[in-house]
Specification:
The complex is a heterodimer.
Chain A (H helix, E strand, L loop, with lengths): L1 H15 L8 H10 L2 H18 L36 H37 L1 H15 L3 H11 L8 H16 L1 H15 L2 H8 L4 H38 L10 H8 L7 H29 L5
Chain B lengths: L1 H28 L16 H10 L6 H13 L12 H36 L4 H15 L2 H15 L15 H26 L3 H8 L4 H13 L1 H9 L1 H15 L4 H10 L3 H29 L1 H4 L2
The chains are: A mainly alpha, B mainly alpha.
């Protein structure tokens, strides 16, 4: 199905745009993305989620800390669409405010992982030799630890309590996930850099007297970024799941921080009596992950030169 | 073959050493109080601190500590729980359950995943194909702990088809195994489908069809075999994810395995027990990956003769 659509577009491109200037890979990808329904749907969900994370006040006028124990676990009603949680807080408000922690952990970890992984991969790929050997073995070491298990070890060693400031609690989760998450980016970056650095335009730049720094920043990096961007989009959803899982286990985010994982873990004991407590945070969490997976799929299709 | 095995072992040893060192350094040697959060909600009692300082040689320099620690790991001493019970004994009594659960989950993911992938792949773009694509997308985006809670509430509590929690029988492991395998199942189905679709276009498949072979044989023998190589790779590499998932699933279904030990350790804030048990899981993962690599040499003649 995909291929058919693609070849039609390629035909159009070959004909209609033959005279216009050639687009860059990113420009081409953007053209592809705009017409992909997968991208449009996921982008809309993500924009809404980001708005929720940045200004939750847009979506609810209530205060998430404003709870009344007398309302504990009340079912959804006209006044409270999602019902109330164990502490008698409005579940809709709590769910809206929960977006912030998930998005924050997802974005921060992804950015950190992309930067660290890219730098390591670039150094290893560009310089080669002994530096490459050392960096690659270090990458192997970190790669060998399964991410959830590794994060449990880190967070069990540096536990957060109710008194830990929110930014520290979130920071620990980001560090725990990032510590083991950068390896794939490093491997991706290393292999693309090795390919790109043998390209003719890199040799030409070197022949014209460009220094290592200029070659790396102006020629190698822009051409090696595509796979990293694709991977980063997909892995953002993975980090959101891992954060929620850690919070569910009771080792990730902690009480003063509002998080879907914590809400679901609280709902555990009351699944039969108050299914709404499980349902709404789960739906939001799954929709977030789904949106990032779909976005990743769309971005990969757009950036993958093999499909062109 | 022999040379390949030696080579693989040679590559693996530094990684195992490095990885265990990494974990050890994380747990006992990072700046700050190594006893923070290892004893529940209180600060560690003096005698626990002394016992652990002695057990982990915390007064020695880090490399010495690590060597002594590896020595005790190799002799089967995995440390002690907060109450002083041996982690090794606890693990020994728990691992058969986790092993059964994980193997059952792998069986589910392989059988159902490949079947779904083949059904989707042989009629590309058809109803089944779209059904599989959409349902795997949903499976991938719902986290395991949500699937677990939902499955438990629906099939266990409401419909009563399965036991709600583990009761010692094999049957009570079925629902947890399906939950545990569900995420990987989706990946296996998608991988199988993608490879099958790709391989069905190959020249040798056209030849097979032209020879007049029945479709079943073309798909089942000629194409599927080649399409399954990446699937095998995935299943091996995915074990780490399954072991992590086991922590969640065993916690939800109250299955007394290694994952449950970690789950309880986390809830009791017993960092020592948690890290000891997780370290063992990571080691198991490393060893299994090595075995899978060696298995390739047996399965794939290109590697054997390299």
């Amino acid at each position: 199905m995909h291929d058919r659509r693609r070849s039609r577009r390629r035909g159009r491109r070959g004909g209609g745009h033959a005279a216009s200037a050639p687009r860059s890979l990113a420009g081409d990808a953007w053209q592809d993305l705009r017409s992909s329904p997968l991208f449009v749907i996921s982008a809309v969900i993500i924009v809404v989620l980001i708005a929720m994370a940045v200004v939750p006040g847009l979506f609810t006028s209530r205060d998430p800390q404003d709870c009344d124990l007398a309302l504990s676990r009340q079912a959804p009603s006209a006044g409270a669409w999602f019902g109330y949680d164990l502490q008698g807080c409005d579940l809709y408000t709590r769910t809206v405010y929960g977006a912030r922690a998930s998005i924050l952990v997802g974005v921060l970890t992804t950015v950190g992982v992309a930067v660290v992984g890219s730098v390591v991969g670039m150094l290893a790929g560009y310089h080669g030799g002994r530096l490459d050997a050392v960096l690659s073995r270090v990458t192997d070491m970190f790669f060998a630890v399964p991410m959830l298990l590794g994060a449990i070890i880190v967070l069990a060693t540096f536990p957060s309590t109710v008194d830990t400031p929110a930014w520290q609690t979130i920071g620990k989760v980001v560090l725990a996930l990032g510590l083991l998450g950068w390896t794939t980016v490093a491997r991706l970056m290393r292999s693309t850099v090795i390919q790109v650095k043998q390209a003719d335009f890199v040799n030409a730049a070197r022949g014209l007297g460009a220094g290592s720094r200029r070659i790396l920043l102006r020629h190698v990096v822009p051409n090696a970024m595509a796979p990293v961007i694709v991977y980063a989009t997909i892995v953002l959803g993975v980090f959101v799941v891992l954060e929620a899982t850690l919070s569910f286990l009771g080792i990730g985010l902690q009480a003063p921080v509002i998080s879907w994982g914590i809400a679901i873990s609280e709902a555990r004991t009351y699944v039969r009596q108050s299914p709404h407590m499980l349902l709404f945070p789960s739906v939001f969490l799954s929709a977030t992950v789904l949106a990032f997976i779909m976005l990743g799929d769309a971005v990969r299709d757009a950036f993958d030169p093999k499909l062109r | 073959m022999g040379r390949y095995v030696v080579q693989r072992l040679g590559q693996m040893v530094p990684v195992v050493i490095g990885t265990t060192f990494l974990i050890y350094a994380l747990v006992w040697a990072l700046p700050g109080d190594p006893f923070a959060g290892k004893c529940g909600d209180r600060p560690c009692p003096e005698n626990y601190v002394q016992r652990m300082t002695a057990a982990y040689n915390l007064d020695d320099p880090l490399p010495v500590q690590y060597v002594k620690y590896m020595g005790s790991l190799l002799t089967g001493d995995f440390g002690q729980t907060f109450t002083g019970a041996s982690v090794a004994d606890e693990l020994l009594s728990r691992y058969p359950t986790t092993l059964k659960l994980t193997l059952l989950a792998i069986a589910v993911e392989v059988v159902v995943g490949i079947a779904a992938g083949v059904l989707a792949g042989i009629r590309r773009g058809g109803f089944l194909d779209n059904l599989v694509l959409v349902s795997t997308l949903v499976l991938v985006s719902v986290p395991v702990f949500v699937t677990g809670l939902l499955a438990q509430a629906t099939f266990g509590v409401r419909l009563g088809w399965f036991p709600v929690t583990f009761d010692g029988t094999f049957f009570s492991l079925v629902l947890p195994a399906v939950v545990l395998g569900s995420l990987s199942l989706a990946f296996v189905a998608r991988l199988t489908r993608a490879n099958l679709v790709e391989n069905l276009r190959a020249d040798y498949v056209r030849t097979a069809i032209a020879k007049g072979l029945p479709r079943q044989r073309v798909v089942g023998v000629h194409t599927l075999r080649n399409s399954l190589i990446p699937v095998v790779t995935f299943v091996g590499a995915d074990l780490g994810g399954l072991l992590g998932g086991a922590v969640v699933v065993e916690g939800i279904f109250n299955i007394p395995g290694v994952g449950d030990m970690i789950f309880r350790g986390i809830n009791a804030h017993e960092g020592g027990t948690v890290t000891a048990a997780v370290t063992v899981l990571v080691l198991v993962f490393l060893i299994v990956n090595l075995l899978v690599d060696l298995l390739y040499a047996v399965l794939d003649p290109r590697i054997r003769h390299a």
